[in-house]
Fold Co2+/Mg2+ efflux protein ApaG.
Amino acid sequence: MITQITKGIKISVITSFEGTFFKNYRMHFAFGYKITIENQSKDSVQLTSRHWQIYDSLNHPEFVDGEGVIGKKPVLKPGESHSYSSGCLLTSPIGAMRGHYNMVNFTSTRKFRVYIPTFKLCAPFALN
C-alpha cells in the first residue's frame, strides 16, 4: 500500500493486475486500483475534481481531468473516509500513475490540492 498525507487528507492506494487482452490488434494490460481518502484534519472537506497523469513505458503520458471520482463528489467530515475502485489500460506491462484531487475546505471556503502519490503498475510476469 502506498500512502501520502497532504493538509490532513490521507490518500492510500492499493493496485492489482487484472489481466491481458487484445484490442484493435494490440495487446493491452489491465490494472485496477483502490483508493481510500481519509480526512484526518479538523475541518469538513469536499472533493470536487481530479487530475491524473498516467505513464505507460511504451507511450507518451496521458492526462485525465474530470469532476469528482466515479460520479461522486464526496464530503468528508473529520475522521471520515471514502473509498472507490477504478482502473486503467496500458499497452505495456509496466507503468505508473500519479495526480491530485482538488478539494474545498468548508470552514475556510478555500480550495486546495491533495496529492495522490505515484504508484507503480506492473504485471507480475514483468518483474525481475
